[in-house]
Structures are given as structure tokens and as C-alpha cells.
Amino acid sequence: MSQYKVVHYINQFFGQVGSEEMADYPAEKRQGPVGPGIAFTMAFGDEAAITATIVCGDSWYNENLELAKKTVLDMVREEKPDLFIAGPAFNAGRYGVACGSIADAVQTELGVPAVTGMYVENPGADMYREKVYTVATGDNAAGMRRVVPVMANLGLKLVRRQEIGASIEEGYLPNGIRKNFFDQKCGSLRAIEMLLNKLHDKPFVTEYPMPVYDRVAPGPAIQELSKATIALVTSGGIVPKGNPDHIESSSATRYGSYHLTGVDDLTSETYETAHGGYDPVYANQDADRVVPVDVLRQYEKEGRIGKLHDWFYSTVGNGTSVASSKRFAMEITEKLLAQGVNAVILTST
Questions:
Q1: Which of 112, 147, 228, 252 is least surrounded by CB atoms within 10 angstroms?
Q2: pTM above 0.85, yes or no
Q3: Does residue 147 lie within any of the structural domains?
Q4: pLDDT at 1
């Protein structure tokens, strides 16, 4: 039997073109496997082969969505593959969105089965997990060795038109599709076993996980802005030159607090961004573009606000987990309340 033909989509980093500085790299098709495609080749064995790899910058795809989608679809169409693999993207947001978007398009418009992989908190997972089989990954590429065989196996099952098992069996993120099956134990017995395990602090897996949504009540409107103390908090990674708190460029585990007394302008000589998820050029030229100290100082002088708070707080949102983000928010909020801050302007990238 001849090998199944596979086309693999990866971003500029895994395509060995460059990092964030090459995120505008247009889609390019190369012959054979590239980067993680080597691992997929080993996982496929003799049954499938990557005939072409499409390398595309994350920014170029997401900022030129229709053009990028058409360009990549044309490249895939030329190869006439049996299977399309995208990623895995782990917790890289733009990469995840691109993988989900193009995998969905390949399935819908070309009729070619597709598989991708990403971390559960990747925005691409929320957008496309119900449309494309999305294998669950860790939050960084350290898990590549574990996830590639799972993606390869699932892809081969799709090509062979074999029945796909439950998400917990096949390793993909739940996609909202439920199938009835007969278990060896009745529901009441399984429920009692789960309850006993929970009471004895033993591991168990619920058969019906419920979604958990954060609900934050909006604060009351500020009645007199001209008397209010306003603070700046950012996930855009603005830090003093040299990044003294060593905030990570991705998957941040810490944040910094920086004094603004006597500071009217964040200059390129004194501030920069530590963020690894967007082009840093314009933020490094003028950090006020992310943390608008200059504008708020002007508002302060004009009496439009009472006072700009003496400290601003900064972290990096790129790949940072929800758990870390919640911890940062709670700690920073406690400090701001203790310091008499009335309102916060929260900026991103």
C-alpha cells in the first residue's frame, strides 16, 4: 500500500526562520518535513510521509487573514494530501489561532481531514476545538515528544476512516460531541465509587465536567474623576531598562512594581518591554504607547484626574497561565486598595 501524503503547517519559529522579529514572514512551502515534522515522520513510520511543510509567520497569518488563508489553501491544494497537520502550537496564542483557522479551512474547503494540538488555555483551543480535532498539549514545547505520537495516531485514524474514541481515550480536547456506550458498571455504582474516592482524597475523573466561568461584578462609577487616584497596570511587559525583576518573555511567573514619582515620560533610554509575544520595536521606542504615563501626567496637570498613582505594575501576558494571572491580580489589587487607588487603567499590547 502506498503511503498517505501529509502536509504540515508550522510557524516561523518551528520553521527555523526566526523568532518574534520574523513573525511577519509570509507563507512559504517547502518540500518534505521541517523541524517537528521530523518527529512526525518517525511517528508515522511507513504508513505516511510529510510531502510538504508550510512555514508561515504568526503575525502575517493573523493580520492578513483572508489572504493568508487563501495562500495556504492553494499550497495545500497543490499537494493533494490525505491528511493535514497543524502545529502543535502549545500555548502560543497567535500560532494556535492560525493552526485552528487553517485546519478548519482545509477540512471545510478541501475535504481533507485535519488535526492540530494546543494547550487548553490557548485562545485557538476555545475557538476551534469543536471544529477540529485538537490534541491536548502542555503549555510549552518541552512536551513535543509526548504529543506528536498522539497527533499522528489520531490523524492516521481519520485517514483510515476508523471510529474515533472519546477524548479521554484519544487525547484530544473535549469537542462537545457525546456518544452513548455501555459500561461494565452501572451509573449509580460509578457515582458511589467517585464519591468515595473524593472523600478519601483519592484521584477520580468526573464523567460530566461542568464549565466554570469567572463572574466579576463591575465596580461603581467614579463620581468625581478630578479627585480620583488612577493607577496603571499592564500585561504589555513594560519594565525599567534591563528588566531588573527578570520577568519572563513568555509564561510569566512574576510581575514588577515600578516607581513613577518624578517620571513624566517613559523614554527609550529608561524603559523597554520584556514581552516576547509582539513586535517590541514601537514599545521600545516609546513605552508610553503601552503605559500612557505622559498622557495621564497631562490630565493630572489639567485637573481631569486627581493624581496618577506613584507606582505602576507590569507583567507579560504572553502564554501566562490563568492561575498565574489570577494570583497577580489578587496581589496587585490588595496593594492598590491599601494604597488608596480609586481606579485602574489596565493596558495590554
A1: 228
A2: no
A3: yes
A4: 52
